[in-house]
Design brief:
The structure holds two protein chains of two kinds. Chain A is mainly alpha-helical. Chain A has a single domain, classed as Orthogonal Bundle (ABC transporter involved in vitamin B12 uptake, BtuC). Chain A has 17 helices and two strands. Chain A has a two-stranded antiparallel sheet with strand order 1-2. Chain A starts with a helix and ends with a helix. Chain B is α/β, with parallel strands linked by helices. Among the domains of chain B are: 126 residues, P-loop containing nucleotide triphosphate hydrolases (Rossmann fold, 3-Layer(aba) Sandwich), CATH 3.40.50; 166 residues, Rossmann fold (3-Layer(aba) Sandwich); 77 residues, no CATH class. Chain B has 17 helices and 22 strands. The chains are: A mainly alpha, B alpha/beta. The interface between A and B is medium-sized, with 28 and 33 residues.
Amino acid sequence: MTTTTATESWFKRTSRSIHIPPVYIFLIVTFLVSGLLDQILSDGQILTNPAIMLNIIVRSVALGIVAVGQTMVIIGASIDLSVAYTISITAVMSSYIMLGDPAKVPIAIPAVFGIGVIIGLANGLIITKLKVNPFIATLGVSLIIKGIINATFSNYTGSVPKSFEYFGYGTIGSIPVSIIIMLFVFLVGWFILARTKFGAHLYGVGGNAEVARLSGVRTDRVVIGAHILCSLTAVLSGLFLVSQMRSGAPWVGPNGLYDLNSIATTVIGGTALSGGKGGVWGTLAGVLIFGILDTTFNQLGVNPYLKMVLRGAIIILAVASYTIRSKKEAA
Amino acid sequence: MANEIDDINTKPAEEKQPTMEVQHISKRFPGVIALDDVSLQFFPGETHAVVGENGAGKSTLMKIMSGAYTPDSGTMYLGGEKVSFSHPQQAQLKGVAIIYQEFNLLPERTVAHNIFLARESSHLGTLNIQKMNKDAVEVLKELGVEKMILPTALVSSLSVAEQQLVEIAKAISFKAKVLIMDEPTAALTYTEVDLLVNLISRLKQKGMSVIFISHRLREVFDIAEKITVLKDGKLIKTVVKKDVTPSDVVYLMVGRTLDHYFPPLGTPEDFGEVVLKVSNASNQILSDINFELRRGEVLGVAGLQGSGRTELAQSLFGVMPFKTGNMELHGKAIAVKNPAKAIKNRMGFVTEDRKSEGLAPRQPIRDNMLLTVRSVQFLFSLILKDGIRKSRNLVPMLGEQVDIRTDSFDREVQFLSGGNQQKVVLAKWLASDADVFFFDEPTRGIDVESKAGIHDMIRALTKRGIAVLMISSELPEIIGMSDRILVMADHRIAGELPARSSEQEIMLMAIGHASDKITELTAAVGEN
């Protein structure tokens, strides 16, 4: 047995306890490469214009908020494919209830969060009590929501009052409100995962459900709780989108690919799809990488189909590099 | 000899009150009686080893004591109070902790998080991580390892021995009175074992009852004060270590009559030329492997757990190829670098772990039987009409050969009994025309009746001129089936014994090698 753990240098121990996810290296590389390409091939706004930088982050808000929820369920070894349509139902229902009337806002917001709780509860109960694989369970719920909203709404429905647009367009000083809200959601997500009992149990359930159960964790409750939180983040994303678009449409969620993108950013951020490992800060980096790529592709005028190809290749590259790295560490 | 050793279970009860006591515990599983009326007492400050062959019932007893199984009959007492557990957590809260061979830890979490999982210090749901780390240090201090293991370290960064310490720390934090360990030394090096021995004596001084299961008699004699021998689910005897020698214990473990029918051994006219010859072969695990396998014989391979039995078959079959030495098949030198090469050379490997290595459980019988044929045939030949017809005829023919009882060959393999599953594995290799078969624990987890069927079938294979190498941890099976017996110890072949050697002869050869080494070791230490 070795005693290196105790005698290790202070620096080594501290650097390990802070544990910077490798995705941040990727984020910096992506930023620098994008900025350089932009500098050479386009007008070089990315590196020089702070407004562009802020714009990148604002464009990442909707994905960022829901990715926090997705990170939680994935840490619990589950997954949520219903977030895209949860975003859609939030967008249409809130603008349908508000109808441009500021007095209706206090009714609409609790109503859509209520819908979020019901969706999350349904996902969690189907997974834990009916023992349906999370992928299938949430895909099924997603189709049910899709059917309901497509039967009821076809395009833009209702509108949000001017005051509600503050969420999407307001600023405090020169910082957009939406960015502050997103960062707050990340902070709350971090706190729940790292500093609460619920978070500790979620890592336990995701790491090894049997170990957690034998230690006395009520595994079903933890999974259901994570799904409710995830749906609530989707609702918040939906509210942000509707405040930007001023009116809700049933296609906002699926068009933004929020289901697959939130999973992709979570995985790029270093959260294991098998559960039990990861955190929201990695996901934040993943979300920003997506934002930078999008903006760069737009700046450079890349063909939209080529954009998809490049994005796909970058996801694979990023995740493969971690696996190879962790294998090297294990060896 | 062993017959005169005092059985302390029959002596008048000791004055001290036992920490834990089991009375008349019985447990049956389909086809086997795992435990038959077992009564035992465990006293505070005492280390008690439970030994026995595979299938003797050791693990079942430990699982009952720790709440993972409920007994069919019998009662348990903890500190004089009658208890029954329906869930391991209940046992844990009452102070009975168990540490399995496979650790129950979360590798990506810290030591403190693991020790206090589901019992985190918190205020209104918010963790008090500082307090958890401090409490973890306190627990680790009780073991005297607080300098070695930091509460903030990730479990995945610890060595196996350190992870075991974390498990023990977790058990202690439940205020365990009884600590059960399943093969605690199996994954440890010699120095780590010494550390564990020290730790156990420390726990004993605190009045804890330590119970452990082990296959390694050396460690049983190092650690335990009392040794209980189980055999075929029955309690044979509990002895005090200082009254006995290892060979006494071996005698108690194995002395038994063959109560199961085995087909007659091969006759000299069955045996043909040498089919497989291995000389001076070795790899990362095995060293110095030399043996010959003849046509028409069953060559049994015996040895303790961890002696390299399974690895021998894996090396021959190319799963873990030999790095040096020579292998000759039918007189021609070959190098089996991977299983595909082995299959091409018409070898068959019936693995120990049917579910994960031998079968695709959700596929029908038909597809499982044709797996090896398909893997070696030209990709399209089976898709062509002729191939389909051929496979259609092949499956019922194979089914008949292995005497599989099923209403349809389209039934998924997962729904078959263990015995029938094993027959499917066998059919798979028959289909590939293999003429050298390696069996690893061919009848593990199979009921008695199907066992006889499998044994008949193995013998029938040899009558058809097939050479069989059969690895088994069940000595009656080795003795009942083998025309010659190889005994493995310490990753080498310790020696060869003739057919119908006794269990004692085999066991002594299997542990003898190891005990020589211990004497050498102790001598060396003495000189220094």
